[in-house]
C-alpha cells in the first residue's frame, strides 16, 4: 500500500514536504508542490485522514449534541452552526441525544478520543460536574449561560425576555394569562415560571401546560385553556409554531384576535410572520453562529446574544 514515504521518493522531496502539501500549507515551493501532486496522481494515493489529523493536531470537525431535530428552536441554532462551519471549512456531525444522559457522555468520550476538535451542547440532560472533566480534551461550548470557566458559551438572557413578554401583556391590560413550555424539568421552563410569578403573582397550575412542541400541541393547549372556568385573555406560547396552533383554534371558535384573545409566540418563525403573531425573537441563529466560532477559536468566552420583542397584530 502506497504511503507518504513512497510519494516522497518519487517526488524527490522530504517526507515533511509531502506532509505540508497534504495539509495545504502555504509555504511550499511551487515546483516541490507540483512534484508531490504529480506523484500522488501517478501512484493513485488517497491520504489517510486520521493520519493527517494526527500530524495537523486537529480534525476540523465539530460535534453538535442536539436533543432532537424537527424542532424550530434547535433547527435555528443548528442553521447558525452550519453557516459558520461552512464559512470556516469545518465539518459538522449532529449527535442526537433525546436528552439521554448516557448518550451525551458517549459523545463526550468521542471528544476524548480526538474524533472532534470540540463539541457544542445545544441543550443537556447531564449536570456540569459530569461534563466539565471532558473539557481538557477539546473545546466544549454551551448554548446557555454557564459560569464555569472551563466551558465557553453563546447565550441569551431568557429570563429577562420572559419578563418583558409578560410585562407587555400586563401593560395591554391582561391579568389572566396562560403559557406553554416544552420540557417541564428544563431550566428555561423554570425561568418562565419564575418570570410569570414575578409579573402576575401566584401561578394557578391550570394556566401552564408543558410538552408543547408543534402546531397541533398549540391547538390542543388553546382548546384546554379556553375551556377553563376563568378563561385567559392572553397566552404566551413557547414557539411560533405552537402559537400558530393557538391562533387556528381561536379562529375556529370565532374568537377575535387580539380583542378576545391575545397571543405572543417565540422564535420569529415564518408561520408567525405570516399570521401576524407577535414574538420574542431570541436570535437563535446568531447563538449557533457564535457557538461555532467559539469552538473554532478554542475560546472559553461568554458571549451574550441580544433578544428583541416584535409586536404584531396578535397583541
From TrEMBL:
Pfam families attached to this UniProt entry: LacI, Peripla_BP_1
CDD domains, per the entry: HTH_LacI, PBP1_CcpB-like
InterPro entries xrefs: HTH_LacI (IPR000843), Lambda_DNA-bd_dom_sf (IPR010982), Peripla_BP/Lac1_sug-bd_dom (IPR001761), Peripla_BP_I (IPR028082)
UniProt entry keywords in alphabetical sequence: DNA-binding, Transcription, Transcription regulation
Tree of life domain: Bacteria
Alphabetical list of SMART domains matching this protein: HTH_LACI
Domain HTH lacI-type: 2-56
Identification of the protein by name: LacI family transcriptional regulator
Species whose genome carries this gene: Gottfriedia luciferensis
